[in-house]
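Record type: monomer structure entry
Structure origin: computed from sequence
Chain ID: A
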Amino acid sequence: MTVIYTDNNADYSGLKRRVTEIFKSRYPEDNPKDVLTFMSGIVEDEGQADRRNKIMDSLMTEIDLEGFQVVNSQYFSTISAPQMTIWCDSVSFSQAAYAALNNCEAVSIMLNKDKKCILISPVQTSNPNAIVWRKGKSVTKYCKISCTTFARKLFDDWGLDDDYRYRTIGRLVQSDRKVMVLFDFTQSEKWKGDKAVK
């Protein structure tokens, strides 16, 4: 029986001992005889790789994923992710949204009403559809943008409740090599005050 462990200038004696214990418990008729130490940066030859794979297969049990579900990432901290929030009279973007678009001075906003998605892309301030989303040129600051007509239309079309604000996480996308941020409000969180509401 062969035991393989990794040694990268660290004390792996505990790991080596534990692997040996596992082998003895699973294969009481065998004893580990040979210990191969693979230093970081050394490439395994085909024989070593085959032996390692066989040993790992014997140590790790195959698992059936039936009954498991992927946990939605929205349940975890999203401080570093671009976010957009809509109120019944305004919208806002997180600092990460500014950073995602290289702290540009203005964006254009595109709406897919049926899919409940909003897409923002950087534009020159001279663009007729430019929305200046920064408070200052030298420092990027949180900016709540008043847009009563647009926000009211969103709330009516999407059946949102005026008593709450709705926040969602964005992701980087591209079209014709132009970087944009897509916000999907089918996955939005409903907030009141400083608490998320189910």
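Annotation 1: The first helix runs from residue 13 to 26.
Annotation 2: The radius of gyration is 27 Å.
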